[in-house]
């Protein structure tokens, strides 16, 4: 059976509408406080309707994180070489304002260690994409002469993600930890440009 013209486009638009509603629900109620029912209500759809657009709750939550990255990228990322590290710090600061989304990220990243989990590919792609962005940032700063050419840009990219994710977990457990300050300090040490 063929789809009606425009039905695919409408389906994509409805998925995006659901994801946008979910971002708001989780930001407001937290990861544990946001049920599929509440997300469905916020999107003006039934719970069964959610499962029409997403094959499982796990896929829904992985797509919510994808949408969060898309929104954060639009809000904070620019194409100026050498600014990705500062951009990441802005994104992490924003994460402190929407702790429910940070909780979702931490929970799903742990669950995605299961090879069968719906979020596994999202995290693999995310780590590769952002690791490469950090590496490109380091290479731009090396070309500008502001960072030592001896720093391995590819390794740094992966380490930068590990530092950010690790500090986010510590902040989720103890919100008195200044996550952004610690990340800035650690990445400054790694690049040979420590800050106080």
Automatic annotation (TrEMBL):
Keywords associated with the record: DNA-binding
Gene3D superfamilies to which the protein is assigned, alphabetical: Tetracycline Repressor, domain 2
SUPFAM superfamilies xref list: Homeodomain-like (SSF46689), Tetracyclin repressor-like, C-terminal domain (SSF48498)
Binding region for DNA: 35-54
Domain of life: Bacteria
InterPro entries tied to this protein: Homeodomain-like_sf (IPR009057), HTH-type_TetR-like_transc_reg (IPR050109), HTH_TetR (IPR001647), Tet_transcr_reg_TetR-rel_C_sf (IPR036271)
Keyword hit for Transmembrane: no
Domain HTH tetR-type residues, every copy: 12-72
Key word DNA-binding present: yes
A Pfam family annotated for this UniProt entry: TetR_N
Name the record gives this protein: Helix-turn-helix domain-containing protein
